[in-house]
């Protein structure tokens, strides 16, 4: 199912970005542009991120870097 029709981003793609460390709609937007045009998909992205059981999200909530792999690469 499409989440962002402006850029053709699917639920699966959003979930994959979440598994890779994105835990906010802004981080998803940085990864694939979803939510950066008309913005109508932002709430759906938020709902998908809340539903997932993503370990990096837990790290972010504890104040630890959620995107450690990207931090190390920089």
Fold blueprint:
Layout (H helix, E strand, L loop, with lengths): L1 E3 L4 E2 H9 L5 H8 L9 H10 L3 H7 L6 H6 L1
Explain this structure to me?
This protein is mostly helical and 74 residues long. The protein contains five helices and two strands, in the order E-E-H-H-H-H-H.
Short description:
The protein has 74 residues and is mainly alpha-helical.
SSE string, helices as H and strands as E: EEHHHHH
Residue stretches low in confidence (pLDDT < 50, at least 5 long) are 69-74
Number of helices: 5
State the strand order across the main sheet: 1-2
Major sheet description: 2 strands, antiparallel
Tally of extended strands? 2
Provide the gyration radius in Å.
12 Å
Structural classification: mainly alpha
Helix content: 40-55%
| Overall mean pLDDT | 82
Shape: globular
- Sheet-strand content, in percent, reads 5-15%
Distance between the termini: 33 Å
Q: Which terms summarize this structure?
A:
two-stranded antiparallel ribbon; 74 residues; 2 strands; 54% helix; mainly alpha; single chain; 5 helices
